[in-house]
Amino acid sequence: LSMANSSCVTEFLLLGFSSLGELQLVLFMIFLCLYLIILSGNITIISVICLDHSLHTPMYFFLCVLSTSEIFYTIVILPKMLINLLSVTISFHCCAIQMFFFLGFAMTNCLLLGVMGYDRYAAICHPLHYPILMSWQMCGKLGALCGIGGFLASLTVVYLVFSLPFCSANKVNHYFCDISPVIRLACTNTDAHEFVIFICGVLVLVVPFLFICVSYICILRTILKIPSAEGRRKAFSTCASHLTVVIIHYGCASYIYLRPTANYVSNKDRLVTVTYTIVTPLLNPMVYSLRNKDVQVAIRKVIVGTFSSLSFCNSIAI
């Protein structure tokens, strides 16, 4: 309420797709299909990991947490995006809530990817100590820390953005309430707030990414010492999926959030934002299922088990 009292603006107009005219209906169908695919893909990953005991390992535990975070991360953005193709208004408080949850899950994902890099480092570089280094108790603590750290950083950023006064300008040149397009509407100097937001971005993006880079340097050194080519290939294959997601997620997020607001270019930035709000959640289940034989085998086992159970139930009913 105190944030709203310092502003004359009570709602924002999201302009992200308002200029597309008749193409909005086509986009609605495309985004709806992608939304359903993202939900079904990530739910499949979570279900398979929970049902198959062979996947009850730290790596798949963090993948399960990541998929759960991706589902909520997508729910925060895509339903409102679909509505925005028909209506483009969002209230001041709803805008703040959307930004809080979007950034919270996005930052949690960044930290989770860093923890997953450490998990690969421990598994490949210290296999004998792996059960101790990545015990279930440690996995739970790391997962909880990622969530708490992500949402605390999000709360800080949202407070910094919405504690600014918004006088009359209320047209957000984006398809959801993101930091740069919203903070540009403030009717005061935002340099100090933007600097603190930039520091939060560095802590959430650069620090985990550097940690991942150091982990993979150690992993590469260990893999090169493996005498057999098959052993090297198998060790690296367990990291390939994680590396693919890391490059896309950190690359797009760094491009958007680790630069001044003045450099925000709406059309180009919207395209990059679509990549990490839609493509990355869509890519995660595909990369981890298509490139991971363990997940492929588990999916087949779950499908066969499901059909077997249905056949058994039908035979009893007959």
TrEMBL record:
GO terms for molecular function: G protein-coupled receptor activity; olfactory receptor activity. The chain crosses the membrane at residues 25-51, 58-78, 90-118, 139-162, 195-223, 235-258, 270-290. Pfam families: 7tm_4. It comes from the Eukaryota. It is found in: Cell membrane. It comes from Bos indicus x Bos taurus (Hybrid cattle). PROSITE patterns: G_PROTEIN_RECEP_F1_1, G_PROTEIN_RECEP_F1_2. Keywords: Cell membrane, G-protein coupled receptor, Membrane, Olfaction, Receptor, Sensory transduction, Transducer, Transmembrane, Transmembrane helix. This is Olfactory receptor.
